[in-house]
What does this fold into?
Amino acid sequence: MKISSFIFLLWIACFYTKAQNSPFTGFGLGSLSSDGNIAQQLNGSTGVSSGGGYYVNLINPALLVRNTSVTFDASYNLRFQQLKSSQSFQDFTTGNINTVALALPINKKWTTAIGLKPYSNIDYLIENANRVENSDFFAYYTYRGEGGLNNLFLSNGISITKDLSVGLKFSYLFGNLTQESVSELIAAGQNSRIAYSRRNNINQITFTPAIAYRYHLEKDRKFLNIGLVYDLASNAKTRRFEGFEKRDVFSGGVLPTFIDTLVTVKGKTFLPSRIKAGISYEYINKFVISAEISTQNWSSYKSFDVSEPELTNRFQMALGTEWTPDHRSNNFWQRSTYRFGVNHTPSILKINGKNVNETNVSIGTSLAFSGGQGKLTYVHIGATAGKRGSISNNNIQERFIEAKLGVSISDVLWFYRPKID
It folds into this structure.
């Protein structure tokens, strides 16, 4: 299959996507998307201190200086998920676009990149029923959430010296978060539903400065890499709509009969700062071992000056490794790269005083295809398996496997204009 055909099929697949279905997404901005592109995610979502020149580094913009040729990234996730309690379980299969990015070297010391990737998503549906006190009637309740934020970014990496580089990423976060609660009372053969809905439309430009340094352990072969990335806090512009809706139920379906808008107001959503630090040992074109930590105090999150007690300080630890047997080999499997990573977050939420943690393990490969002089294509294939929460602590556990597919295309001649003497 030609790479152009692969990209076309990838984009077609993106039109048939749906976000994950999880009650853990119903807090704050929802579930935060994994950092990096497919290659980085298969390394445990590491990339603060390390990054190859054949894919776009989405974690540390300072490392874009390693992209000395035009590089295009596109990728897709397919998620198999199970929600399990002590009484029952449900299975879901969902998918979403992972990232699209393009890196462009401006000169020998400056590389810029533009791209789009998900930032967060909300997608849950909870239903229960309770008997109305002192009656034979039941009240049925439905809680639904959907939407999320996207990240349109422009990143720049600049070399200060041979081993020191700095970067700055401009991100435009935009999207909407919709949450709805519906109550239904059935009495005397008639029933009606009262729905309360709230939608927050959010947009904001954020800034991420970064730095990367490479220390030579052995000339041109072995290095100790250090990186630091800082997402600045911001007050995102937010427009909120709140309303009640009365829905009469009849044999043909549900008919909205009365809508009462409570309020449409403008306000702010506070997004906390995040710091990421990483260190890696690199044997150039052979293997890389990376260790990283990040922290973001989501307990300081506020929307219209109202905080959410379930949100906690999010501390994340990641380990990743990649290995290339022989990058110059004519053997396809010898010149491909193999990846493994572990990512652990001790607390993403605190519900009823107990932490909800998340752990995942990733494995995969980047298959190297040579397209001639100055051209190189990698197809990234892998999977991430993980879990959130536990039945004993949180009464519900989410297990998932994400199949990952992506492509990185590098070509030094994309913008070269041939001259005829």
Notes: The longest strand covers residues 190-218.
